[in-house]
Amino acid sequence: MRKLSALLLPAALLSLSPVAGQASEGASAIASAVSAPGRPAEAVTLDASRKPAAILSFLGLKPGMHAADLVSGTGYWAEIMARVVGAKGHVVAYEPDQFYNDSEGTATWNALLSREKNVSLTRYPFEKFTAPAASIDFAISNLNYHDQYWESAKYKIARSEPADYVSALYAAMKPDGIVGIIDHAGLPGNTREIVNKLHRIDPAVVKADFEKAGFVLEATSDLLRNPDDDHSKLVFDPSIRGKTDRFVLKFRKPK
């Protein structure tokens, strides 16, 4: 049997390695970003269900990165990430033209951009996502990848091809770049029908879409799982809204 000192030596060396130091730096920056004052009260209220510190630590966001918040909404993730990446990094919030473009949405974004100077907002047609090639170190998509399969006359969302979106995202990522996908878990079946009815998606579909584009699935997390969720319910059902069973996938673009 090896001595205890021998067993502990690799861990001790790891704690002194550059990789371990960077991970520690990232975790510290993330914790500070989430807990520091100044974020809107409604955003802070979401922290309990979204677990931003744990999620961003799992995905590996670090200071200095150029990050993207994909379909940013009101900028919940963009604001936190901007605090993490700091002055040497930058966050681009990608938001479709169809959403948050009224006076209230404009006011919300103007306030965020005023608070966080290293965030920029990029608008684009939902069905025509594009970003500069090899410009992103880290991207997150929170509860919206399934919408690539969604069609809505009400919201002017035309039918689009998810493969086009993922291919454009692959081109936009730097080699070794990370993409985190968080979404409402759905059952296997006709993906478009399930999305249009329930706004859920089978995680196996997401994995297949991203791997087909060239991404590698590096890790998964159960941080946001809820085994009591009924996957046949619409995610906006009052009995489950904000508490759905969510999967977290960490993809990486190969070097």
CATH architecture grouping:
3-Layer(aba) Sandwich
What is the helix content? 40-55%
Q: Classify the secondary structure makeup into a structural class.
A: alpha/beta
The total beta strand count reads 7
Q: What share of residues are in beta strands?
A: 15-25%
Distance between the termini: 40 Å
List SSEs in N-to-C order.
HHHHEHEHEEHEHHEE
Overall mean pLDDT stands at 92
List the strand order in the largest sheet: 3-2-1-4-5-7-6
Q: What does this 3D model show about the protein?
A:
By secondary structure, the protein is of the alpha/beta class. The protein has one domain (19-252): 3-Layer(aba) Sandwich (Rossmann fold). It is 40% helix and 20% strand. It has 9 helices and 7 strands; from the N terminus they run ααααβαβαββαβααββ. The chain has a 7-stranded mixed sheet. Helix 2 runs antiparallel to helix 4, helix 2 (18-35) packs across helix 5 (76-85) and helix 7 crosses helix 9 (203-213). The radius of gyration is 19 Å and the shape is globular. Mean pLDDT is 92; it is low at 1-17.
Helices, strands, pairings?
Elements: H1 4-16, H2 18-35, H3 41-50, H4 52-59, E1 66-70, H5 76-85, E2 90-96, H6 103-115, E3 119-124, E4 136-142, H7 162-172, E5 173-184, H8 191-198, H9 203-213, E6 216-221, E7 246-252
Parallel strand pairs: 1-2, 1-4, 2-3, 4-5
Antiparallel strand pairs: 5-7, 6-7
